[in-house]
Structure formats: structure tokens, C-alpha cells
Amino acid sequence: MQQTRLTLTTDVTVDDTGRFLEVPFHVADDITEIRINITVVPKLSGSCIIDVGLCDSLRVRGWSGSTKYELVIGLDHATSGYVGGDILPGTWKVLLGVYVAGRAGATVRTEITLVEASRQWLQGDLHVHTVHSDGAYTLLQLDEIARDKGLDFIALTDHNTVSQNWAYPRETSVTYIPSMELTTYHGHANLFGVAVPCDDFRVQSSSDVSRLTSEARGRGAKISINHPFDDAGPSCQWRWGYDVSFDWLEVWNGPWRESNAQALSLWQSMLASGKRVIAVGGSDTHREHAYVRHGYPTCYVYSKSRRTGDILEAIGAGLVSMSYRPNGPRLALQAEDALMGGETQGDSFTVSVTNAKALDELVLITEVGEIKRHVVSTPGDLEIAGKHNAGQFLRAELWRYFTEVDKMLIAALSNPIFIKR
Ligand SMILES: [Zn+2]
Q: For the chain, which residues score pLDDT lower than 50?
């Protein structure tokens, strides 16, 4: 994380009493967080009260009087009394309100830290239900679980409702992605990223679905078709076809099982036919369950910031891989200059695996199927480099032996690098 630090000193005199002094500083593009620390040193002993506020390049963003001298303002969080959100480039000003200047004035030291956007791996769950639909967890319980597991983001995908998008906690380390699971009698789709993706969820035909998903996309939503082969209920399988307007395919829903294997092979055939579809996963947790738990699977997203828009942008770009649990094994691919989701004309690649276990099997796959298998010998992080002759795409899977079920299951799954021939 790149940071710029500056310290500015302001001399406050008795004549400044009742005035607002300004401490200007420059904010460049791509700043994701501003931290401000104020220290007031009176020139003589005695009372000296300096109030504090902050202006962005257009308007006052907050005021905390003399109650808070440590301020943070970020894209989706801020100290109470300040408004988080967009950090506009330009001249910002710390406001110093001189309430009581003391007998001889004071020196005010303003330390400013500007945090620049830089891509980082975030982990989260893209499919979660709460009491706002048929889940058992309140949003506060969910927040506690998410923080406990180290999840950075959660998509609130309650069925056919959006009330959760108004009710989630704002002052938390977790980024909540406002979402809705469009739940029809012939399949489910997540609409991510906007509080109100549609005005009415009821659809009766593929053209209704297309109209609704196009409308949601027009409002800024990203769409995933969910658990297309899940037979848990009569309406879970996707029967609206794949010509409808969508962005991503949920190939990994909850614990790895046959319906996920079918979704994976559907995705493989889409990719082999030249369709550049990004795969996502989510736990679909509703209530306490032995295997269906928050973050099982987790999506690792290589995002510019913790902001919803940046997380969704990174997923859309294909900078996402899945892992069977939070802090589980993570796959990333590189081919020449391209990262996952990117495009290359070259024939060399590097796969990196984080948190591997001995005897894990790393499998490389192209449109013709498996092209290489590597058995991990030492646990930890590893990198495998080589050449490929893929014509459409290259992707990776990590398989692991799980004693609970006495078989090899997928432990991590990458998105592809696309090949341009
Ligand atoms: Zn569903």
C-alpha cells in the first residue's frame, strides 16, 4: 500500500480567536483514504481549544469540534461526524476553528497520510442470505462472523428483496455489496452492486429474464447465473437458457458436490467455444450447517480498493479465483504481461499457489482439457512456470484429499487467461 505523509504546522495567535484557519493540502487521483492527526501545543500553559473539520475540493465533509483529533475518511468508511465516499482530487483543507486561543496562542501540528490505491487480494463471500429473506442470521450477527473469519466483503443476496441493502452496518471493516438474488421458479441469478437492481422481480419467460437483467445492468448491476444444476429445490436449476443477458457464472456454490462439477463442465464448454465467461463462487449460507458456512467457498479478488465498485470491477476483469475456505489455498495465473481474465499471444505461463499442502494436485487446463499435472511436494507457496499451446484459454485447478469425505475435491479454482492467436 503506497502512502504519502506530510506534516504541516500552523501558528495560532490570540488575534485568531473566533476565526476558521485553513490548512490546505493536495489530493492526487487514486487516493482511497485520508488519515489526519492533529496535535495542539499551547504556547503558555492554560486552556486552548481548537475545533477541527475537513473540506474536500468542493464542500465541508465533516466537523468534530474539539472532540476528535484523529480523523479517517475513506471510500466507504469515515470517522463519525465525517462523510465517507468519493475522494475528489484537488485541494482539500483541514479547518481549525479557534474557539479559545489561550494566553499566547498555540502551535497546531497537522499530520496527513494519503493512502493510494494499489491492488491487493481481498477475500469474501458473494452469496449470503440473512433474516431479510429466509436466512437465520441478522446483519449484525453476519458482521461479527465475517470479521471473525477475516472476510473483506460480503454480497447480501437475499431472495427477491432489497431491504438488507439499507440495513447493513456501515461502520465496519467489511464491505457489504448491495445485492439481490433474483429467485424465479426456473432458476436463480445474483444481481450485484446496486441497492435497487429492479423494481419488480416477477418473470415468466426467458425474454422477461433478459429484460430484467438488462435493466439491472443498466442500473450498474453485475449479474451471475447461480448454481445452474442445483437440485436442492424444484426451482434452483437454471432453465432460462444462457442467451439471457448475464456477466458471470456461479460454478462453485457451497460445498463441492456433483452439481458444482456439472457447473464447472458447463463453464469449461462455454470457454472452449470461445465465450469469455468469468466464474465466481459463494457459500449460499442461510443458517448454521455443518458444511454450508460463510466463506465456503471464498472468492479471492485482486482489487484496487475495498470499495464495492472496485471489487466488482476486478471480478469483471477476471481478477478472481476461488478457494474452499477463508485463508485457504489461492491460485493466480500470469502469462507474459496478462493476469487472470487478461489476454495474451505468448506461450509461457506462471501459476502461483499460496497455502498449498503436500500432495495437493495442481492441474492446468485448456480447451482440450488437462495439459499438465503437478503434485505438490512441500507445503506453503509455490510457483510453476512453463509453456503451453492453448488456443482459447488456460486455467488452473488445485485438488486436495479431504479425509471427511475420503476423496479428492477441488480446493481452489482460477479464472482463465485468454489466448489470442
Ligand atoms: Zn439460489
A: none
According to DSSP, the residues that pair with 234 across neighbouring strands are: none
pLDDT of 170:
86
3-state secondary structure of 55: strand
> Cβ(130)–Cβ(158) under 8 Å?
yes
Tell me the whole-structure pTM to 2 decimals: 0.85
Q: What distance in angstroms lies between residue 294's CA and the mean position of ligand 1's atoms?
A: 15
329-421 carries CATH number 2.60.40.10: yes
The reported pLDDT for the residue numbered 117 is: 84
* Residue ranges of domains in the chain: 3-116, 119-327, 329-421
Rounded to the nearest whole angstrom, what is the distance from the C-alpha of residue 125 to the centroid of ligand 1?
14
pLDDT given at position 76: 77
Distance from the alpha carbon of residue 170 to the mean position of ligand 1, in angstroms:
26
Q: For ligand 1, an ion, list residues with CB under 5 A.
A: 188, 226
- Going from the C-alpha of 147 to that of each of 53, 123, 175, 199, 233, the distances in angstroms are 30, 11, 10, 32, 31
Q: How high is the pLDDT of residue 195?
A: 97
Nearest to 282, CA basis, from 263, 268, 299, 266: 299
**Number of C-beta neighbours around residue 286 at 10 A:** 16
Name every residue whose Cβ is closer than 8 Å to that of residue 76 and which is 6 or more positions away in sequence: 84, 85, 170, 175, 306, 307, 308
User: Ligand 1 centre and the CA of 14: distance in Å?
Assistant: 66
3-116 CATH: 2.60.120.380
Classify domain 119-327 at the CATH topology level. TIM Barrel (3.20.20)
How far is the centre of ligand 1, averaged over its atoms, from the C-alpha of 135 (Å)? 12
- The two domains 3-116 and 329-421 share their CATH topology (first three levels equal): no
